[in-house]
Design goal:
By secondary structure, the protein is an alpha+beta fold. It is 25% helix and 19% strand. The chain is built from two helices and six strands.
Length: 100
């Protein structure tokens, strides 16, 4: 099974909400397999785990993209890598609507 598939099963069967799955902010992953999970070690503070690559964080260790609301690796980051790339390409092209 793939991590996104396991995340879907976990969300449906453990959390009861498949809408809670997010895109992994890890630069080497990017799969829709990121979920909040509760572990035995730290049941008071949920962890954020990617079921595809194993990325692990806490909610305070992640940021949120201002454009698309996807999680980012750094809480101080305002744009995810996809939105950064889009903004850079738009800037390089002279902005949206200025092409030929």
């Amino acid at each position: 099974m793939y991590g996104w598939n396991i995340a879907q099963h976990y969300a449906d069967n453990i959390r009861g909400d498949s809408r809670s799955i997010s895109t992994c902010p890890s630069p080497w992953c990017g799969e829709e397999a990121l979920l909040e999970v509760t572990t035995r070690e730290n049941s008071d503070e949920p962890a954020i785990l990617c079921f595809e690559c194993g990325f692990l964080s806490t909610a305070v260790g992640l940021g949120v993209c201002d454009e698309c609301s996807r999680p980012t690796v750094d809480p101080g980051t305002r744009l995810c890598t996809d939105c950064q790339s889009l903004a850079q390409s738009c800037h390089a092209d002279g902005g949206i609507g200025r092409g030929g």
